[in-house]
Amino acid sequence: MPLKAELHCHIEGAAAPELVIRQAQKYGKDVSPYIQNGSFVWHDFTSFLKAYDFAADLFRTEDDYARLSEYYLTSLARDGAIYSEIFTSPDHATKAGLSPQAYTDALGEGMARAKAKTGIEGRMIVTGVRHVGLESIEAAARFAARCGHPLVTGFGVAGDERNGDIEDYVRAFEIAREAGLGITIHAGEFGGWESVQAALDHIRPSRIGHGVRAIENPDLVKRIAAEGVVLECCPGSNIALKVFDSYAEHPFPALLATGCKVTLNSDDPPYFWTTLKHEYDIAAEHFGMSDKDLTAVTRTAIEAAFVDRKTKAQLLARLNTGHR
Ligand code: ADE
Ligand code: ZN
């Protein structure tokens, strides 16, 4: 089994239906519109976001969040992952009644517990959510810059790409960059290639969340390769959300062949009936990748990780020996 690393997973979106059902019982909520037969129910991006927001609202205390990150990183480690970056969302915490600092500390506590049990290294990327609005995105950037949590090493923007304009986020990203945080932005998922170009032009990220619709513009693909921007690809998510109709049409192999740096990620795993391991299996089955190819993908992820140089060297050494 190749060792793995994940750069793109929304922690609220990593809660399995069983866990969400347990939280709903704890808070006296009815899950039936959103979970049926042990599976999340949604039919398009808008209804996916609604189910996601419903489930996220069931994580309300520090203990809820600590258990969530401990559970997710432990399950990743079981599947051969040595490194995990999770997207955190101060907006979801605030909505659920917890301060961003208490939420971040709790997630960090869960990550520390998972590390103690399994050795998995983890970091957090604070995100702003486009459909919540510009002010909240800037507030998330300010929080990320000042929170001082040692595991917060990045800032990103997620949410519905049909809301807002990438240019409007320049100030938020400048706040994060000045604080020394790594920069990633969702683009080229529901936005076309133009959104990826706008991200490169205005935000200058080292990584792009998804980015796969860059394939619609060959010159842009060449630019991504030339600039060494890393794409956080989530093939299972893209197929579930119908960004592409089938794995045969997914651009992962074409992007790789053009020299783009690509990684494999689960995004919101149970919503898309996937796991990080399943993404590696998809790449083996549908994109013809060998274990050696997959290990190279893990290396790309670790090289692009928002982690200090010493930890990165240790992770690369673990990868090179093949031992966790
Ligand atoms: N938030 C959680 N999952 C997302 C996705 N796939 N795209 C944009 N925002 C998200
Ligand atoms: Zn995402």
Automatic annotation (TrEMBL):
Its cofactor is Zn(2+). It catalyses: adenine + H2O + H(+) = hypoxanthine + NH4(+). Its EC number is 3.5.4.2. Zn(2+) binds at residues 8, 10, 186, 267. Gene3D superfamilies: Metal-dependent hydrolases. Substrate binds at residue 268. Keywords: Hydrolase, Metal-binding, Nucleotide metabolism, Zinc. One of its GO terms (molecular function) is adenine deaminase activity. Transmembrane segments: none annotated. GO terms for biological process: adenine catabolic process; hypoxanthine salvage; nucleotide metabolic process. It is an enzyme of class 3 (hydrolase). Pfam families: A_deaminase. Residues 4-320 form the Adenosine deaminase domain. The record marks 210 as: Important for catalytic activity. The active site is at residue 189. The keyword Nucleotide-binding does not apply. Belongs to the metallo-dependent hydrolases superfamily. Adenosine and AMP deaminases family. Adenine deaminase type 2 subfamily. This is Adenine deaminase. It comes from Mesorhizobium alhagi CCNWXJ12-2.
